[in-house]
Amino acid sequence: MRDLLTTDGLGHDEATAILDTADELKRTLLGREVRKLPTLRGRTVITMFYENSTRTRVSFEIAGKWMSADVINVSAGGSSVGKGESLRDTALTLSAAGADCVIVRHPASGAPHRLSGWLAETRTSVVNAGDGMHEHPTQALLDAATLRERLGSIEGRRIAIVGDVLHSRVARSNVHLLATLGAEVVLVAPPTLLPHGVEQWPVTTAYDLDSQLPGIDAVMMLRVQAERMRGGFFPSAREYSIAYGLNEKRLAMLPDHAVVLHPGPMLRGMEIASPVADSPRAAITEQVSNGVHVRMAVLYHLLAGEEL
Ligand code: CP
Question: Which parts of the sequence bind L-aspartate (predicted)?
Fold first, then answer.
């Protein structure tokens, strides 16, 4: 694997190898006072975030540091992008400076794919840390790691992805990966927040959340992305919360073993009620800590010379 740009086309064996490596890294580091492995000593990882992030940026930085890579963070505001430098020139500059891997988040769908093309003749790998409304592959991998941990397996499980599917790169990456891993996915959303062409996706769709809850193994709540809704938000926030918010009453309708996920950042009281987010049924903090191990695994497979 040279780059990680999408989960569309990531094979079952490739995805499983990343998840198995993440498990192994987690086991290796568990209970250690000093969480540092020498695996990527001498390698340089650069994060380049053109959109805000807490979880993805921090966990990639921790992942690189725990594997002894040199990690450098570049933000659009603090770089020559602010002087008008293009994405291509920025990428070629970082590669020429010695980057073994560039991790990029960008508001434009497809930006990491362009970067990958520009850097194809170099030694620099590209990881997509979220591009517009397109994909967020490491989020889907950490979600899969969390589901495996909580449920024991993914194959044959029924997973509901609920809410603003239209604007969600998390949903797109999860749909591809969960289908590859053999899960049954149902997208639950108001018609206005389902994308055109969803009937071509390997999913079923539903508008009514309550009818789905008793039969599912995991519910993945999505953030409502108001910043991507230029024409306003329909239904209203109140209507949305009433119809699609995961509250305590809905939590009680889930099977006992079912797990609640949310990629964060959460809008408490909107898509998820605080008592649900903080309940033992929710695996939201586990998703964050699994994110570090999954991102370590991705860097390992990209940079440590282990072919998948
Ligand atoms: N889930 C996720 O991508 O969170 P951040 O935007 O904080 O990185």
Answer: 83, 169, 223
